[in-house]
Each structure stands twice: as C-alpha cells, then as structure tokens.
Amino acid sequence: MHSVPPAFACTDCGAKTMHIPQWTHDDAFIECAGCGKPFATIRQLRERLEAALKEKNLPLVDAPSEWSK
Ligand SMILES: [Zn+2]
Question: 5, 15, 18, 41: least buried by Cβ within 10 Å?
Fold first, then answer.
C-alpha cells in the first residue's frame, strides 16, 4: 500500500530532505539533501505547498521550519 506522497520528494532518490540555500530570493534553487538534484525554486515549491494546504486543509508536518516565517 502506498500512502499519499508528500507535496515534495526527490524523484531520483525519494528523499524528503531538502537542502535549502540561504534564503536570498524566491528564485533560489532548493536541492535534494540526498543526491543534490535540484527540486525547484523556492517560489515553485511554496506555490505547491500552498495549493496542497488549500486542498487538504491540513498542516504540512513535513515543511521545514523556514516556511513558517
Ligand atoms: Zn535525491
């Protein structure tokens, strides 16, 4: 059985851990902490997370603490 995948996960290694660079601007790339593959920009990921929140109306427990800023 598969659980619902999180809003973000590495398509290569499946890691849900991201390496977030210094929060310089929304177009900075977030990389996979497992294999270094770029996920998306901060802007893209934030939009995805916000869409997921609206759909499910649930808190995103996997979101890094940085998102709550
Ligand atoms: Zn990876």
Answer: 5
pLDDT for the residue 13:
92
Q: Which whole-number Å values give the CA distances from 14 to 8, 10, 18, in the listed order? A: 9, 5, 11
**How far is ligand 1, taken at its centre, from the CA of residue 56, in Å?**
26
Whether residue 30 is contained in a domain is answered as: yes
pTM here is 0.50
Domain span holding position 47: 9-57
Q: Which residues surround ligand 1, an ion (CB under 5 A)?
A: 10, 12-13, 15, 32, 34-35, 37
Token pair in block for residue 49? 């997370």
Number of structural domains in the chain: 1
